[in-house]
Amino acid sequence: MTAFQDRRGGSDDDEVVKVHGLVKSIGRARVLDDVGLRVHRGEIHAVLGPDGAGKTTLLRILAGQLSSDAGTVLVFGVQPWREPSLVHRRTAMVLGEVALWSALTGGAAIERLAAQHGGVDPERRDSLLALLGLDPSRSVHRHHGAERRKLALVAALSGRAELVLLDEPMAGLTEPQKDSLRLWLRTRRATDQTVLLAGHVLSELESAADRITIMQRGRVVDSGSPAEVRQLTRTFVSAELDCPAPDLEDLAEVHNFVRYRNTVHCEVDTDHLDQVLRRLLDCGLRSLTSRPATLQDLLQGERMSVGRVLAEHGSGS
Fold first, then answer.
1. pLDDT tens column, 175-201
2. CA-CA distance, 58 to 20, in Å (whole number)?
3. Burial class of residue 85, CB neighbours in 10 A (0-12, 13-18, 19+)
4. I need a surface site. Which of 50, 129, 176, 191 has the fewest CB within 10 A?
5. At a CB cut-off of 8 Å and minimum separation 6, what does 63 contact?
6. 38 closest CA partner among 11, 69, 70, 65
7. Residue 91 pairs with which residues in a beta bridge?
8. CATH number listed for the domain at residues 15-228
């Protein structure tokens, strides 16, 4: 996918981040290759992909910590590494390790960080502190690394920054805290605040995002809403039939077909699911399970195998 080939319409005027044809090499390795990204005002946009996909490098360029080798990169209409003070006044970020003032309390550290972006919203701060189990009266030096990162996360999201950049925001959180933060992002953040998240555990960010950009090996694989991205993948189908299973391998819309006695496992192009199900119904359907492919499937290229089918259902001997 080339730069800017997402499926969102709308005016360029509300684009907080505009990236086109971005190339970046570190040493001899090309880390980003023809990357395109559009982030619109007020949206939660997740950049998802496995480790090494280039997500962190992309965020560091947007934060002005690195420059590009080629392409267009604009944040609030300027190149962030050329006008870092302008970008930093309007952007809160939590990237990599967090360094805080050890002599301050956690609450004071949050206030000082948020002061760089117009101050803190007390209601959002207090809700995040409770969500993450943080005591603002406790001194920073008594917080370990993961807790310091939580303090920075509170400051970024409860401050008045127009843009928030978060790399692996769920790192160090318990499962209940992850669930609560996803809900918080959807319901409690400032409505005019733009949030750009990056992560490699797709299920952690998918439900929080308005838009998703998927990266792999330094390139953008796809970009769109969660539903749009998922529609590009296949539906996983398993069926148990009354008679020997039909051979569906001749259908172009069926992939990775596995037949074992009266059981069928395959992947089906979602647009053609109905005609495949009709073929299965003709054989007498005892049971049917299906699920849409997840974003994890899209990245990993999950495929059914005879060994997996036998492991799940037994040898049948």
1. 999 999 999 998 877 678 999 999 988
2. 12
3. exposed
4. 191
5. 80, 87, 88, 91, 93, 95, 165
6. 11
7. 163
8. 3.40.50.300
Structure tokens at 251: 């259908």
| Mode of pairing for the β-strands spanning 15-26 and 29-40 | antiparallel
Only one residue has tokens 């189990």, namely: 133
Instruction: Report how far residue 147's alpha carbon sits from residue 97's, in angstroms, rounded to the nearest whole number.
Output: 11
Convert the pLDDT of each residue in 131-190 to its tens digit. 999 999 999 999 988 999 999 999 999 999 999 999 999 999 999 999 999 999 988 776
Amino acid at 26: I
Q: What b/e sequence results for 46-72 when a residue is b if at least 16 CB atoms lie within 10 Å of its CB, and e otherwise?
A: bbbbeeebbbbbbbbbbbbebebeebe
Q: What is the mean pLDDT of residues 243-258?
A: 86
Number of other residues whose CB lies within 10 A of the CB of residue 156:
24
Domain boundary assignment for the chain: 15-228, 233-312
233-312 placed in CATH 3.40.50: no
